[in-house]
Amino acid sequence: MEVFNRRISLKNKKTDILFLTILFLVLEIEFYRFVAPSFRSMGFGFRFSFIDFMLGKFFFVFALIINHHLKGFNYFINTLFVIFLTIPSIILFEYQPDTPAIIVFFVLLFHLLFYLSTLFSVKKIIPDIRFTERSEYLFLTGISVGMLLPFFVIYGLQIHPEVFLLKNIYGVRAIFSSKTNMLTAYLFSPLVKIVFPIGIVYGVIKKKVGVILFSTVSLLYLFGLSGHKSIFFSLLILPVFLIRTYEMQAKYISVLVIFAIFATVFISLTTGNILLESIVVRRVFFLPALITNDYYHFFDGNYVFLSNSILKSFIDYPFHLPPPQLIGEKYFYSPDADVNSGFLSTGFMNFGYLGVLMNILGVVVLLKFFSEMKISSHYAGIFLIVVFTLLSSSFFVSLLTHGIFVFVLLILLFLRNSETGEV
């Protein structure tokens, strides 16, 4: 049986290589056909260098080789980074003017270090905390209600029905922000990205309808208050990952992404409305990679050494705006834009190449922890949320503000060892 399962796994990985290659080529064509000519005002451009073109293909093959040698959770999580980080970074290196090659080098270094981390185990040094099923249920219920209560106290039932039709989104966000305080600001992301999504999956696994309904209604309540569309993202992706093993999910998400791109291109060509194609192709894949380029160009030699955050009492911040608004003013001609970036570029912003390496090591350690905990693949949708968080926020902000630290605690308390023979 073990030999049979290994053969099935290898067969799946071969088809995964095919799907990832198709995705790479599709996105390459989309950058040339759609992104570069349509969004020059945002900083996108196009130039062709045969050397960069061939180097890009070599980098992609290198990433595929590393991915092929992983399995189970490690294979799944690495595939997510290949899709949403590595492929866009390589394509911009090939065609976007003034794209530093060092960005792709650090992306590939991240994959290599993550692979090396899978060659040894550290599970024995992580404390083993065990709850009974009833204790798990009571703890999850208590933390969900406790974290939601401040929103009821401040906002009550001031829900804005129009946001469910995706209308007046930014107006509702402004109202929500005007009433928020430090407590609700820190609780919001952990609730919508971690706690309630875990509640939905936990309820499905344990067949606790009450937990599913409470978590779902709570997410809709917070969406009605805030207008944050990321909440809909959480609700939509969770069911996708409930019935597959990790390695099957890696294939599944590749196919879904390819299908989504083709669907939006079809809509664009048949209706003339490019909005969906812009959101899926430009916003999801290429804009984060372009913003990474902008951070590297702007902060090269102008490192801030955390003077905009935890070291602001000791080091003077040298600019007139926070980094996200600074990049918005410089490259997107809008100082009101919050142009956030991920763990690679914010590491560079703070400490240069040393900062990039430090953040890479931090993310690798985090992923190693996830891997050692043997978490059920039913929770894979939450790991997708974690990946997007790491790619759009600094490492420490992702940990402390966006809920990853809360996720770590929940894993230690009752999610660990929930994997039962899954690969």
Folded structure, characterized:
The chain is about 70% helix and about 0% strand. The protein has helices spanning about 1-40, 50-70, 70-95, 100-115, 135-155, 170-180, 180-205, 210-225, 230-235, 245-270, 275-300, 325-330, 345-370, 380-390, 395-400, 405-415. The longest helix is centred in the first third of the chain and has 37 residues, at about 1-40. The model is unreliable at about 1-10 (pLDDT under 50).
Task: Jot down its keywords.
2 domains; single chain; 423 residues
* Alpha carbon gyration radius: 22 Å
Task: State the shape.
Answer: globular
The major sheet is characterized as: none
Strand content: under 5%
Order of helices and strands: HHHHHHHHHHHHHHHH
The helix/strand class is mainly alpha
Secondary structure tally: strands: 0
Task: Give the number of domains.
Answer: 2
> What do the pLDDT scores average to?
88
For the record, give the distance between the C-alpha atoms at the N and C termini, rounded to a whole number. Answer: 14 Å
Give a short synopsis of this structure.
The protein is mainly alpha-helical. Helix content is 72%, strand content 0%. The protein folds into two domains: 2-120 and 243-415, no CATH class; 133-241, no CATH class.
Record the SSE blueprint:
Layout: H1 2-38, H2 50-68, H3 72-95, H4 101-117, H5 133-155, H6 169-179, H7 182-206, H8 209-226, H9 230-237, H10 246-271, H11 275-299, H12 323-331, H13 343-372, H14 380-392, H15 395-400, H16 404-415
Helix pairs in contact: 1-3, 1-10, 1-11, 2-3, 2-4, 3-4, 3-10, 3-11, 3-14, 4-13, 5-7, 5-8, 7-8, 10-11, 11-13
